[in-house]
Amino acid sequence: MPRSPNAPSPKAGPVTLAMVARRAGVSPQTVSNALNSPELLRSETLERVQRTIDEMGYRPHRAAQTLRTRSSKLIGYGIRPAPGNSAPVMDRFLHALSQAADEAGYRILLFASPPGNASLDGHEELIDLHSVDGFVLSGTDRGDPRQAWLTKRGIPFVGFGRMWSGRQIGDWADVDGASGTDAAVEHLVALGHRRIAFLGWPRGSGVGDDRAEGWQRAMRRHGLPVRGRRAQSVDDTASARAAVAPLLDTGATAVIAASDMLALGCYQALRERKAAPGKDVAVIGFDDSPTAALLSPGLSTVAQPLEAAGRECVRLLLARMSEPGAPPERVLLEPSLVVRDSTPAPGS
Predict the structure, then answer these.
(1) Which label site among 63, 96, 102, 134 has the fewest CB atoms less than 10 Å from its CB?
(2) 250 and 321 within one domain
(3) Which segments constitute the HTH lacI-type domain (predicted)?
(4) Is 311 domain-assigned?
(5) Chain-centre distance of CA 224, in angstroms?
(6) C-alpha distances in angstroms, 170 versus 137, 212, 214?
């Protein structure tokens, strides 16, 4: 990329704030305000300083900027072990989160965060050693100690996910799983299905119970029976294959699974019975993992709006940093049904 004719030569050394001030004909404090508090400057002054910064290729020193603003421009995010097939989904969320943070002038600082109280050690270390400005929490569930711990210490945070414990703490953005499975039932009913089963996780999982609730709500709205049509499994294909068998024995013509991993187990169970997924029994998953589109037949599934979730988490966290005493804000995002070949009409 060609160097600006107004930029100093490489031999001149790094461009300093004072050099920018001289070139723009303003004080060093005005340049500092342009970088850190642009709302304090008149529009024409701000434009002149920013143009000079661009022309000279000035980059503020991160450490010095931290001292001036008392901000590290770092957001902590704890990586937790992802169960089953959820790792690709969380990878997509992390990419969206990082991009949204970067656009806001922040960086995501990753650290290992095992489940349980031990995870608080990592948060405390980041606060002490790196002065992170706040945290994004994922994997929130009942009994999670992080929200209360951070609230007590006055550390800003936002959750990607609800707490599920009745008493909500702090800001969060989450995906409406119940709305997703409700839409899945509506799709199957429109195709003519009436014996629609649900293959979910063991009761007590906040996310899993939410997805089961949407299925149950839609079934009752249509006057369809739910008794004997729900099974539970941990998030692996072998367990799902065994758990779905009783549902198939009762004559289910369609199965909605709480994850794509469970739906894959349903595929395997059907093939063991010499039945074809999509042709003999319709199957819908959840998460729209990369595997879903590669299966044969392609798996219909509920897609989470992960890009929107990343943006909302950053927005909520920055708002909390700027207004610590504001009322908590909670955002529930709508998922979308991705229809593929695993959900044909009965007999088609």
Answers:
(1) 63
(2) no
(3) 15-69
(4) yes
(5) 33
(6) 11, 25, 25
Supply the Cα-derived Rg of the chain in whole angstroms.
26
What one-letter code names the amino acid at 167? Answer: R
pLDDT recorded at residue 183: 98
Model confidence band, residue 64 (pLDDT cutoffs 50, 70, 90): very low
CA dist., res. 318 & res. 174, Å (int): 17
Residue 3 CB partners (closer than 8 Å, separation 6+): 57
Clarify whether residues 29 and 104 are in a common domain.
Answer: no
Asked if residue 185 lies in contact with residue 198, where contact means CB atoms within 8 angstroms, the answer is: no
* pLDDT value of residue 68: 46
As a dihedral over the C-alpha atoms of residue 151, residue 156, residue 158, residue 159, rounded to 10 degrees, the angle is: -40
Is the pLDDT score of 10 beyond 50? no
Q: State the residue range of the domain holding 33.
A: 10-69
Task: Give dist(CA 246, CA 230) in Å, integer.
Answer: 9
| Biggest distance spanned by C-alpha atoms of the chain | 82
Domain harbouring 288, CATH code: 3.40.50.2300
Joined together, the tokens standing for residue 339 give 């229809």
Q: Which helix (H) or strand (E) holds 302?
A: strand 300-303
- β 74-79/134-138 pair status: parallel
Q: Could you tell me if residue 109 is inside a domain?
A: yes
Q: Highest mean pLDDT range out of 7-16, 36-45, 56-65, 92-101?
A: 92-101
Same domain flag for 228 and 164:
no
pTM as predicted:
0.77
| Domain CATH code at residue 59 | 1.10.260.40
Q: Which two tokens stand for residue 112?
A: 């290992």
Q: How far apart are CA 31 and CA 299, in angstroms?
A: 55
